[in-house]
């Protein structure tokens, strides 16, 4: 069970005890982080689950797929450490990962 450090849109920092095997989007959505809209439900077609993976964690994760990269890089608030949280599957090795929820385009 990885514990994540989450910064929301207001800048509030909190910890989230997530479940390995869930996606980051599911962990955020199911634990009341309403800044995550996840309009498409996790099928990589909306970008409303945009987050930033902070620090060295950005390099530790699997690389985004072509579809994810194309979608997230077209968002207004894209950064090199941007990910669509529905495309990040959590595991125990991610304990301590820092995530910032990105401003949505809409
Ligand atoms: S929930 Fe739509 S792209 Fe992630």
Automatic annotation (TrEMBL):
**What single Pfam family name could you report for this chain, choosing any that match?**
Fer2
Which keywords does the record carry?
Answer: 2Fe-2S, Iron, Iron-sulfur, Metal-binding
Please list the GO biological process terms of this entry: P450-containing electron transport chain
Example of a GO MF term: electron transfer activity
Enumerate the cofactors the protein uses.
Answer: [2Fe-2S] cluster
2Fe-2S ferredoxin-type domain spans which residues?
1-105
Statement: the UniProt record of this protein carries the keyword Heme? no
Q: Which family does it belong to?
A: Belongs to the adrenodoxin/putidaredoxin family.
Q: What is this protein called?
A: Ferredoxin
The record lists the organism as: Ketobacter alkanivorans
């Amino acid at each position: 069970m990885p514990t994540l450090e989450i910064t929301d849109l207001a800048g509030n920092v909190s910890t989230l005890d997530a479940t390995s095997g869930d996606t980051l989007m599911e962990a955020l959505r199911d634990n009341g982080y309403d800044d995550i809209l996840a309009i498409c439900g996790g099928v990589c077609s909306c970008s409303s689950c945009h987050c930033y993976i902070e620090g060295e964690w950005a390099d530790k994760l699997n690389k985004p797929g072509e579809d994810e990269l194309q979608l997230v890089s077209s968002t207004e608030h894209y950064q090199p450490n941007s990910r669509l949280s529905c495309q990040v599957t959590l595991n125990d090795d991610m304990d301590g990962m820092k995530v910032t929820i990105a401003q949505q385009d809409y």
